[in-house]
Amino acid sequence: xxxxxxxxxxxxxxxxxxxxxxxxxxxxxxxxxxxxxxxxxxxxxxxxxxxxxxxxxxxxxxxxxxxxxxxxxxxxxxx
Length: 79
Hints:
Blueprint: H1 2-10, H2 17-35, H3 41-48, H4 57-70
Helix pairs in contact: 2-3, 3-4
């Protein structure tokens, strides 16, 4: 009975919510650093784990810009 009680108390604390918020924070942090020019497009693609068949700088900027625009609530911000 004690084991069941302890398990039922600990289950809410082991939810994957923490992992999701941590991943979201990392994406937003990477996009912000890219926007502030702390990262170039290739470094941002590496951190965001994006793959590109075309390795040109222009294509990389376009891919990162589109990806980061999904996480930006303000539509007027251009990457």
